[in-house]
Amino acid sequence: MESLRMIENWPVPTAAAAVVRADGTTAGTYGPQEHRFPLASVTKPLAAYAALLAVEEGAVELDEPAGPAGSTVRHLLAHTSGLAFDEDRLMAEPGTRRIYSNAGFEALGDHIAKATDIPFPQYVREAVFEPLGMTATDLPGSPAKDGVSTVADLTRFAAELLAPRLLAPQTLAEATSVVFPGLTGVLPGYGHQKPNDWGLGFEIRDSKEPHWTGATSSPRTFGHFGQSGTFLWVDPDAGAACVALTDRAFGPWAIESWPPLTDAVITELRAEA
Question: What is the pLDDT of residues 195-222, one digit of tens each?
């Protein structure tokens, strides 16, 4: 895709990207597809997918207690448990605020590990990575931020998000719809959002402004970005997904560069249709 050549102007040492169509085929690529990058918070959708599989398998339930008192698996996935960003400290009653929380995802991983008697990194590998053929992907630590992967592997995950075969379609539909609607909160890097809509482990584009996706992205767009300069979005209305991984930390360069790329990708796909 010609639009992906915009990445040549990004101020990053190394970058790789790919666009996936609704049928799972790759529409275009840029850069080294097999280069392993730290994912930072793009780890969270992978961890969330494993959690949803644990729900479908009956190992846990979305509304069973998990995390701080009054919180459930659903609260942890939706960043509404009340836990602080990066410490086991309660900042609000569960369900009352959208507090983006690495600690919440770590509590989620611990909860599933106890329920299944399987270390969470192993559970994610067996439930998600191996079935999808993501052989270069690893989770050596926190389910919130320590994943390592390649664009080639994440295109496989993106294809799963566009047409699920590991999860029931209705489960993914619930996970990528707004959960606990109307809650306000801070979207890291983009400030206070009202509302700050999330699904179960996936951020929802909705009407947020500013945002890391594009002006042409549909409100149903979902995904995640990471502080290591990484993102994955899926736009159901466009019938496409885009993965971009870099080795430069998120900052003003990403805020300036990512939305124009997204708009160019969607425009090019529409022209091809």
Answer: 999 999 999 999 999 999 999 999 999 9
Q: Model confidence over 8-26: pLDDT tens digits?
A: 999 999 999 999 999 999 9
Please enumerate in sequence order all residues whose Cβ is within 8 A of that of 58, keeping only pairs 6 or more positions apart, or say none.
Answer: none
The whole-angstrom separation of Cα 36 and Cα 121 is: 17
**Angle in degrees, CA 205, 129, 249, rounded to 5:** 50
Phi, psi of 38 (to 5 degrees): -70, 135
Rounded to two decimals, what is the model's pTM? 0.97
Set out the domains of the chain in order of their start, with CATH numbers. Answer: 2-272 (3.40.710.10)
Q: Give every CB contact of residue 89 below 8 A, 6+ residues apart in sequence.
A: 83, 103
Nearest-Å Rg of the Cα atoms of the chain is 17
Q: Residue 141: CB partners within 8 Å, gap ≥ 6?
A: 121
